[in-house]
Write a structure and sequence with these properties.
Two copies of one chain form a homodimer.
Chain A (H helix, E strand, L loop, with lengths): L14 H14 L12 H8 L3 H13 L3 E4 L7 E4 L3 H14 L5 H22 L2 H15 L5 H19 L2 H13 L1 H10 L3 H20 L3 H23 L16
Antiparallel strand pairs in A: 1-2
Helix pairs in contact in A: 1-3, 4-8, 5-7, 5-8, 5-10, 5-11, 6-7, 6-10, 7-8, 7-9, 10-11
Chain A binds a DNA duplex (30 and 30 nucleotides) through helix 3.
DNA sequence: TTTGGGGGCTTGGTCAGACCATTGACTGGG
DNA sequence: CCCAGTCAATGGTCTGACCAAGCCCCCAAA
């Protein structure tokens, strides 16, 4: 009885957190599944005995996590419907935390290399003709020498996303796409600052084609290695040469607005 | 002029989304950094010309993503402070989406194998004596044969988390830990249903020690391979033998309520 | 002069009630 | 049979109020 009593602080749960817990409980136990409708906000208010504001804040959190899709009006598709759309939320999440410099750029590159290596291996093992066609379409578009940097970057993103999709592992694919999206604007900035864009584009095209060939051939090992080398090589040789600041990525001159 | 005009739907932004966008803009441009305080809710209300409910819903989203830490009262630590606590949010996110069956268990195993392989390689390359000590502590605790399944599982989780931390890549570490946490209760269930727990524990202990040795020796290649084999092997040989349902993880008999 | 306590202000948390906008279903007239 | 107008359901927004937690500061007492 005389030990230094571990007075852990009582979890000062806010009302909306309790509401959130109730709803999540229903999801975790399987009572609520994708496509099911939540009771209307006003009904939840009386069911749970809280204010509508509390209910709405809880719903907002679920929505931000891509687990809820609200829709106004009447009819079968109206109301708050349980959904499973993790990509958007995950992308948003990573963008935010990268901006908070909590995830240094080098770490993100490493993560991309890891995830996309895995994606490529899976893709090589089980890509369907449709998946391969999706990749080829992006390759073809990137082969057009008149393509703007922006479009090229978009196609590049799409190409890598297609590989991730082809792997068939939704978790890895979503993480891959989210990470790629999170660095999208940074890469675009780098593209713009390159001395010789054409040489870089040529190199990327060639590497992309090699990756596609390996996947189409079903060579997992080679596909994985090529993608990893593609990502690491590009960032090591080019990005670090342009981006001098290792951490920050913001305002060089302008202070705040105010 | 006669092409099929791509009438993309106007982004019906809700008020709180606009508020969110304004705040995120400040974060992305670097005007708001970790530790900075947001203006008080009531002040944001007049600055942005919206209701307090709208402001609060936006803040709730940021908080759910681990980018904000609200605190009542006055003083330096009060108000809404920009933070960077991604782990909790990410774990919550994955748990939710795994429950929504959007991420099949096999996919999660694959993701763990990928992420932890990378973590182990990084850890072997740059683990400090402190990191190694943290791993050894968990190993020692797991060596105690009287340890309950629950405690063993916790130590197991901690051991893998230590490896991820030791790798020094926060993004990969956070994803690794979140994924491991997300399957924590599932693994515990499997442990309970095993025929011969002691044999399994012995095997896990041996594999853990081998992994630790490789990391301590700085052998990245071997550490990565061992971890990947550890995760894949365990799940392949044991989990699939226990879990028969490939997708669902919930109520075998009860339909829905109501 | 120092110290202790208490009032008051700031800030997030909650609530009640009202109104608006969107959407689909119902219904009556052509 | 079809169309348009109406209506109810539902999420979105706003207003204004009160509560609870903390810190600051001033004043009284030692």
């Amino acid at each position: 009885m005389s030990e230094p009593i571990a007075w852990e602080p009582v979890p000062r749960s806010r009302t909306f957190e309790l509401v959130l817990a109730r709803i999540e409980e229903q999801i975790l136990t399987g009572n609520l599944r994708v496509g099911d409708r939540l009771p209307p906000e006003r009904e939840l208010v009386e069911l749970l005995g809280v204010s509508r504001a509390a209910v709405r804040e809880a719903l907002r959190v679920l929505e931000a996590q891509g687990a809820l899709r609200p829709r106004v009006g009447t009819g079968p598709a109206s109301g708050s419907v349980i959904a499973a759309m993790p990509s958007a939320g995950l992308t948003q999440f990573l963008r935010l935390h990268m901006a908070l410099a909590h995830f240094p750029f080098a770490d993100v590159v490493e993560a991309r290399a890891t995830l996309e290596r895995s994606s490529a291996r899976l893709a090589a093992a089980q890509a369907t003709p449709e998946h391969l066609a999706a990749m080829r379409e992006q390759l073809d578009r990137m082969d057009d020498p008149r393509l703007s940097l922006e479009k090229f970057n978009d196609c590049d993103t799409e190409f890598h996303a297609s590989i991730a999709e082809a792997g068939g592992n939704r978790l890895i694919a979503d993480m891959t796409i989210a990470v790629r999206n999170a660095v999208r604007h940074t890469l675009l900035k780098v593209f713009h600052e390159l001395d010789d864009w054409e040489a870089t584009a040529a190199r990327l095209r060639s590497e992309h084609h090699a990756i596609y060939d390996a996947i189409a051939a079903g060579d997992s090992e080679r596909a994985g290695e090529l993608v990893e080398a593609h990502i690491r090589g590009f960032h090591h040789d080019l990005v670090y040469a342009v981006l001098d600041e290792p951490e920050r990525g913001a305002e060089p001159e302008s202070g705040t607005g105010s």
